Fold this sequence. Notes:
45% of the residues lie in helices and 25% in strands. By secondary structure, it is an alpha+beta fold. It is built from 3 helices and 3 strands, in the order ααβββα. It has one domain (11-87). The mean pLDDT is 93.
Amino acid sequence: MREGLTAYLSPYETETSLNQALYRWKARLKFQQKIGAPVFALTKYEKVYRVTMIFEGEKILCFSTESDVNIMDLIDNVIKLRDETLKT
C-alpha cells in the first residue's frame, strides 16, 4: 500500500478477501470452454472498486481503488502493463 493511505481492511481481512478472490477465479475457469476465458472480474462497493484478473499461469492480480476513478480506463491500462511485463 502506498504511504499515507489508510487501509479499509485489516491484514487478516485482506488475506481472507484474497483467498476468496482466488477461489472465485478458479470457479470462473470452470465455464471457460462454454463462454470463454475470464478477462477480469470487477466488484463495486460503496467506497472502492475491487478488480481480479489472471496474471500468469495460476497467479492472479488483485487490486482496489477508490470509487471516483474511471475504472474501465484503469483496467485497460493495467492489462496493457501486465501484458508488457509478461513479454519481457
